[in-house]
Amino acid sequence: MSPPRRERRKADPALSDPERLYVITGAPDGERAALDLVTMVVAQAEPSPMVQPEQAAILRLCKAPLSVAEISAYLSLPFSVVTSLLTELLATELVESRAPVVRASLPDRSLLEAVMHGLQKL
Amino acid sequence: MDFRSSDTITGPRSEDVLPSTATAAVKVVVVGGFGVGKTTMVGSVSEIRPLTTEETMTQAGVGVDDNVGVETKTATTVAMDFGRISLSEELILYLFGTPGQERFWFLWNGLFEGALGAVVLIDTRRLQVSFDVIGRLEERGVPFVVAVNTFPDAPHHPVEALRAALDLSDEVPMIDCDARLRTSSRDVLMTLMRYLHRLAVPLA
């Protein structure tokens, strides 16, 4: 069996345009939602002409739950840019987010057992 | 210039679409030097082809340790590969591979926050990177296990010698693995989970 190969995604020409990145990220000191790489995002609405094309793409992608990291990968946009796009979508309730299950100061044993149970099936 | 039409965005393949019940995500980080097999390990256990997310280093010259002469205000983009394992209909594990060199530590802030733990993947031919990584994880209080990726031409050191070289305490699990094999990489993750489980049991 040959090991899986990483698929390198083609750079989007639009994204090498720094002005465009500035436009979609807005002011550099704007407030951003507290999102983790593994915060799960689900669309609550169909894309409308009212949203930016990047945000419409997110709404399309997130018909089923998708992590912020996956959104970033599929759109070939940096994590920080995706966070900024999602902040607006969250504020207007076009998407819903589900925070990750984090390690508390004392890890939850039932969570770890659920992880082990899932890994056993691999 | 316009963003390409969102109709042309390639999303997940139909078999990679998560059920609507997938509400809980956890993450584990695989950290190690270049070429140590992080992406191989992520890919061998992932149910999706490994994806890449990027982050841009915006602070001028943060942690640039061996780039003398390089213009430090140039933004550096660093790619992180990650994979996914659906553990149940609700619970999803994400596995991130991140480079261990000090100049990439700026990536660690969001990455380790809330992570269950880490796998330090090491190559016995290049232990130096692992020294820094292990020290850094200890400082941050991130629980980790050490997995020795077995390269055919790497010198085989007894576990005890490696443990001493890495100055690891006895409690930290250390195992050999072949990152190319799903079962072997799975066992590394199981070792981490069992270790975390032990840590969660209050000492009598």
What's the rounded overall pLDDT mean of chain A?
81
Largest sheet data of chain A: 3 strands, antiparallel
Q: State the CATH superfamily name of chain B.
A: P-loop containing nucleotide triphosphate hydrolases
Helical segment count of chain A: 5
Task: Report the count of strand segments of chain A.
Answer: 3
Strand content of chain B: 25-35%
User: How many domains is the backbone of chain A divided into?
Assistant: 1
What portion of residues of chain A is helical? 40-55%
Summarize the structure in words.
The complex is a heterodimer of chains A (122) and B (204). Chain A has one domain (13-101): Arc Repressor Mutant, subunit A. Chain A is 41% helix and 8% strand. Chain A has helices spanning 18-25, 53-61, 68-75, 79-91, 109-120, and strands at residues 40-43, 66-67, 95-98. Chain B has a single domain (20-64, 71-200), classed as Rossmann fold (3-Layer(aba) Sandwich). Chain B has helices at residues 38-45, 108-112, 128-140, 159-165, 182-200; strands at 24-32, 51-57, 76-86, 91-99, 117-122, 144-149, 174-177. Chain B has a seven-stranded mixed beta sheet with strand order 2-3-4-1-5-6-7, with helices on both faces. Chain B is globular and about 50 Å long. Mean pLDDT of chain B is 85; it is low at 60-72. Chains A and B meet through helix 2, strand 2, helix 3 and helix 5 of A and strand 1, helix 1, strand 2, strand 3 and strand 4 of B.
Record the SSE blueprint:
The complex is a heterodimer of chains A (122) and B (204).
Chain A: H1 18-25, E1 40-43, H2 53-61, E2 66-67, H3 68-75, H4 79-91, E3 95-98, H5 109-120
Antiparallel strand pairs in A: 1-2, 1-3
Helix pairs in contact in A: 3-4
Chain B: E1 24-32, H1 38-45, E2 51-57, E3 76-86, E4 91-99, H2 108-112, E5 117-122, H3 128-140, E6 144-149, H4 159-165, E7 174-177, H5 182-200
Parallel strand pairs in B: 1-4, 1-5, 5-6, 6-7
Antiparallel strand pairs in B: 2-3, 3-4
